[in-house]
Amino acid sequence: MREDLLVLLKPQSIAEEERKFRVLAGLGSFLQHPEFAEAGTAGIFEPWVVVNRELMNRAVVRGEISAHADIEMACQVITSMASFRGLIQRKPFDKPFFTALIDGILLPALKNPQTAPNIMDRW
Questions:
Q1: Does 123 score more than 60 pLDDT?
Q2: Helix/strand/coil (H, E, C) string of the chain?
Q3: How far apart are CA 92 and CA 83, in angstroms?
Q4: What's the pLDDT at 109?
């Protein structure tokens, strides 16, 4: 699964990164209008979430991660970190950062879900 996830992130040009920052920054205005917010965020993040979810579900079938893993939370962590990295830190969500996220946070939580509380159950 680790390699599958890493393959998703391809090196991009500086111009492409700048375009992403502008799109993400524009989401702020979408969020003020609920009728546009869902479509705007879904159009940017949902395709990535769908692919990540599928890769993680395949990893469950292969026995690489726990069947009790909180895949939805893991998908939210990825998109949240991508947004934070781009909007707040103004840095690219690049391969070294994504690798650290996978190795340090996602894989430990997905492999050992009993040590990582399911936050969504509290909401």
A1: no
A2: CHHHHHHHCCCCCHHHHHHHHHHHHHHHHHHCCHHHHHHHHHHHHHHHHHHHHHHHHHHHHHCCCCCCCCHHHHHHHHHHHHHHHHHHCCCCCCHHHHHHHHHHHHHHHHHCHHHCCCHHHHC
A3: 10
A4: 93
pLDDT at 11: 62
User: Distance between CA 117 and CA 25 in Å, rounded?
Assistant: 31
**Residue showing tokens 């989401």:** 27
Distance CA 105, CA 17 (A): 24
- The pLDDT-based confidence of 86 (bands split at 50, 70, 90) is confident
Measured CA to CA, the distance from residue 31 to residue 29 in angstroms comes to: 5
pTM of the predicted structure, to 2 decimals:
0.73
What is the phi-psi region of residue 90: left when phi exceeds 0, alpha when psi lies from -120 to 50, beta otherwise?
left
